[in-house]
Amino acid sequence: MRFMGSPVISARNVWKIFGKDPVGYLKTLQPGRSFDDIRADGYIAGVRDVSLDVARGEMLVIMGLSGSGKSTLVRCFSRLHEITGGSIEVDGQIIGDLSEKDLIELRRNKMGMVFQSFGLLPHRTVLDNVAFPLEMRGQDRHTRRKRALEVIELVGLAGREDYFPRELSGGQQQRVGIARSLAIEPDIWFLDEPFSALDPLIRREMQDEFLRLQAMLGKTIVFITHDFDEALRLADRIAIMKDGAVEQCDTPDQIVMNPTTGYVAKFTEEIDKARVVHAGVLARAGVVGEGQPVEAGATVQQLARLLVNDSRDLIPVADKGQVIGALDRQGALDILLKAS
Ligand SMILES: Nc1ncnc2c1ncn2[C@@H]1O[C@H](COP(=O)(O)OP(=O)(O)OP(=O)(O)O)[C@@H](O)[C@H]1O
At which positions is ATP bound? Predict the structure, then answer.
């Protein structure tokens, strides 16, 4: 397991119901009622009995179609929504129990947020936009300028400090949004479809940039998208939502290899699994291969040439120089040739 230790966010049986008397309604709700049953009763189940943990340093991607409950769930994590049932802990504190003052402190000091609409202040320069949250914190001009310049450099916008938002491309504006939320050094970073307003090429560039940033900063991230490819590229784990519930929460490898519901399987149908599945996941422990090992972090696609040309049935797999098992070449070839 890559992520150990206590979770940063821990959600247990969380419900968020919209309607006239959600708390009263939830009390009378029979187990097993579907989203449509609840709607027939005049309520909307924005979040339906969700339990999940987000580990420190993990990037959890929440994926689902429009209306599946992604934003509502994330709003519950920061208590922008009061939940109807269940509990949410952030850094070991039950956020439902925090006073308004403590909640504001928590949001201000620990949580960063980036949204699809960049939300920049049009009459402020890049520098002043990025420094804005620091100004809100009462930092002096010199300190906030220094920090703002640091994060502007980090997101690749050095030299554009004095530009106004309208003078920047969409991708650059989103970089300003990212820099602004990084300025306060949040422990937990919520990103709600941050790249969906960008055209496909820029979007890909931003994803790469984002992975580079994350490798450097190691933040705990909850990232919302409705784009499965984006989820597969970025996520340590993906939570797939439907009708307010989490259908499956797993690594990209597991989601494409072992979808647990028909709904998740449908999402994975079109995916080129060879691009997602890693040798480390195919390695069977205790099975001994022969010869030169392949790297656990390599995808099946990256190993394509070797898999086709090699004659070994079992190929050893090594993680950080240690052999962890061996993969069945035929099985990997099946993934490559989409036969699995
Ligand atoms: N304030 C609200 N009042 C009533 N219903 C709401 C409210 N906010 C969200 N909902 C409903 O809750 C459900 C989940 O909405 P949510 O915005 O979380 O979905 P989403 O997956 O984030 O969608 P999108 O990708 O379109 O942003 C939807 O049926 C929505 O209509």
Answer: 64-71
* Nearest atom within ligand 1 for CA of residue 224: 22
By C-alpha distance, which of 183, 160, 182 is closest to 173? 160
Domain count, the chain: 2
Q: Residue 160 is part of which domain span?
A: 53-272
- H or E element that contains 69: none
Residue 86 lies in a domain: yes
Phi, psi of 218 (to 5 degrees): 60, 40
Residue nearest to atom 5 of ligand 1 (CA): 18
Q: Are residues 145 and 264 in the same domain?
A: yes
Contact 86, 12 (CB under 8 A): yes
pLDDT bin (cut points 50, 70, 90) of residue 236 is very high
Residue 340 pLDDT more than 60? no
Shortest-distance atom of ligand 1 to CA 18:
4
Please tell me whether 66 is known to bind a ligand.
Answer: yes
Q: What is the pLDDT of residue 288?
A: 81
Summarize the confidence of residues 167-178 as an average pLDDT: 90
Three-state DSSP class for 34? Answer: coil
Rounded average pLDDT over 22-29 = 95
Mean pLDDT of the chain: 92
48 belongs to a structural domain: no
- The predicted pLDDT at position 195 comes to 86
273 vs 269: CA distance, rounded Å? 9
Any domain includes 47: no
Q: Is 34 annotated as a binding residue?
A: no
